[in-house]
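Structure ticket #2291
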Amino acid sequence: MTLELTNGAEITAEGEIIMDVETVNTITASVSEDLGPFASGRKGAINSLKFSEELIPDFRKHGIEGVDVHFEVNSNRIRAVCRLNAENISSGKIQALLCVSTALLSIWNSARDLESLRRLDYQFASIKNIGITSIVEY
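Resolution: structure written out below.
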């Protein structure tokens, strides 16, 4: 079902996970459309939007469509970007933040599995700079 959005906005949220360069290289080497850390990140992000009312107490979800989740890699950083169209800007901002946070946590979880295989310690990994980066009203 496609929403007919007459008022609303395109909202973009971004955040990054900072890890060991070797771990980021392992993650990018295991990339495919259906498997691997980026696929897990996308799936987790989309699933979080389906269950946002259950995850966030007293949250009222409004219609969203056109969700896009993608990742950018730069050395020891993986940036997650979530863009969506929301009929309610306040609700859409929360959903965009939830989307990008869950994408990064899913990548962290995948990295944990990869690093345990290599017996590396990723104690210095961190998730940072999560925020709304763009709101374009229409």
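Closing remark: The CA atoms of residues 26 and 114 lie 8 Å apart.
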